[in-house]
Amino acid sequence: MNETTELDLHRILFIFRQRWKWILSGFIIGLALMFVTSSFLIPKKYTSSVSLYVNNSQQKATSQDTVNQDDLNASQQLVNTYIVILEDDRVMQSIADKLSKPVSVGQMKKAVHMESANKTEVLSISAETTNPELSAEICNTIADVAPDVLKRVVKAGSVEVIGKATPASSPSSPNVAKQSAIGALIGLMIMIIVSLLAEVLDTTIKGEEDVKKRLNIPVLGEIPHLENQTRAGGKTDEAKK
After folding, report:
1. Which chain regions cross the lipid bilayer (predicted)?
2. For 172, which of 14, 84, 129, 218 is 20 to 30 Å away at the CA?
């Protein structure tokens, strides 16, 4: 059993050595295709973000106020409630109406992502579009609209804007290096599979071992390959000498 496995492993390594050009070409082609696709064909997207601090009280917190664990837990619960409200179609439409460029509700919901930052009372809002200025504008518009909307609907708690969203200087996606590596790996695997299949489907008998293995009969003799054979009499140049 071990001998068969070892022979199979040697055979696979032999196939890799024999068809290394195929495998290398698959690696290079996959790398090049994904690099070109990621760099020039896939639209670049830019992400901006802004954070809102959720306070359980409607009064703004001061340095003299003490915040207990119950207040923090209540604020964390409010974050989830605020996310549901802000993701409502009517709220999204009111935000889209304030933007400098026309954006549909569907595009808004696809571009905007809201979550609790590390499960804290901080509401993190990010927007990803193909326009860095638009991404920042969406975040800042949500931050401007959110306090009044949440106060009107929930009538509990308050939010304070932390900072201001700015246009991203570099795209957040696609990740050219990552996509190129994936393409190279896919190309490599495809050519390895093709090489193994080509060997498995090849029924050509190449030597004595193939005869024993495929026909299961003993080899009685082997006709050598004679070079420099003459047409007349079947004699070789060596025989004439």
Report:
1. 20-42, 180-198
2. 84
Cβ atoms of residues 134 and 125 within 8 Å: no
pLDDT in tens, the chain (241 residues): 444 434 478 878 888 898 899 999 999 999 999 999 999 999 999 999 999 998 876 545 444 445 556 666 777 788 999 999 999 999 999 999 999 999 999 999 999 999 999 888 899 999 999 999 999 999 999 999 999 999 899 887 788 999 899 999 999 999 999 999 999 999 999 999 998 888 788 777 666 666 666 667 776 666 776 665 545 455 544 444 4
Distance in angstroms (rounded) separating the CA atoms of residues 135 and 114: 14
Q: What is the four-CA torsion angle of 40, 126, 183, 180, rounded to 10 degrees?
A: 60
Residue 5 exposure: Cα atoms within 13 Å on the Cβ side: 2
For the chain, the C-alpha Rg in angstroms (whole number) is 35
Torsion of CA 86, 92, 98, 102, to 10 degrees: 150
Could you give the angle at which helices 132-154 and 89-97 cross, rounded to 10 degrees? 130
* Contact status, residue 55 vs residue 158, Cβ threshold 8 Å: yes
Q: Which residue has the tokens 């009107």?
A: 152
Distance separating alpha carbons of residues 224 and 207, to the nearest angstrom: 11
